[in-house]
Amino acid sequence: MVVFPAAMVAIYFVLAVMFNSLLQPLLIMAVIPFAVMSALMALVIHLQPMSLFALIGVLGMTGVVVNNSLVLINRINELREQGLAILDATIDAAMSRLRPILMTSVTTVVGLLPLAYGLGGTDVYMGPMSLTLGYGLLLSLPVVLLVIPAIYVMCFSRSKK
Predict the structure, then answer these.
(1) What is d(CA 67, CA 141) in angstroms, rounded to the nearest whole number?
(2) What parts of the chain have a pLDDT lower than 50?
(3) What CA–CA distances, in Å, run from 70 to 31, 42, 86, 93?
């Protein structure tokens, strides 16, 4: 309960310094609530209790999801610095980063499937962690690829830079 908000504040400040912006870190971190809700839904659907390891899975999943958003927003900013219009930069960045984001998330989810579903043996501690990590990544993927670029265009279409 204490570590997660502290980690979010730390991530925000690191991103704010990196981007020299107060709005872009919020945009990058906008995917976190979607990912957390999908991770918690995975626990409910699979009738797993909330545990320390499940929360560690949520924390790890948050880092990967933020990384996916960061890669996309960074590419949009690079293309805008090259002179592309905001809509063109957003579309080009989403197309060029689709494969890396998909591959990162899908390979992680597929790698966690045996642990999450107990193939080859079950582990009562690691099962909930892999469930939250896998489902959080999988269900936040459309948010990263569709919602974040749309919000970016809405937020920055009126500004010059």
Answers:
(1) 12
(2) none
(3) 11, 25, 17, 12
Nearest Cα neighbor of 139 from 90, 99, 106, 93 is 106
- Rounded distance between C-alpha atoms, residue 81 and residue 64, angstroms: 26
Q: Which residues contact 134 (CB under 8 A, 6 or more apart)?
A: 42, 108, 109, 112, 113, 116
Is the overall model pTM greater than 0.90, yes or no? no
pLDDT tens sequence across 102-111? 999 999 999 9
41: Cβ contacts below 8 Å, ≥ 6 apart: 135, 139
Do the Cβ atoms of 58 and 128 come closer than 8 Å?
A: no
H-assigned helices in 20-147: 23-29, 32-45, 52-81, 86-117, 126-142
pLDDT value at position 120?
74
Tokens 């992680």 correspond to what residue?
108
Tokens of 34: 């979607």
Report the alpha-carbon distance of residue 71 to residue 130 in Å, rounded: 24
User: 142: which 2 tokens?
Assistant: 């459309």
Q: Contact, 139 vs 34, CB < 8 A? A: yes
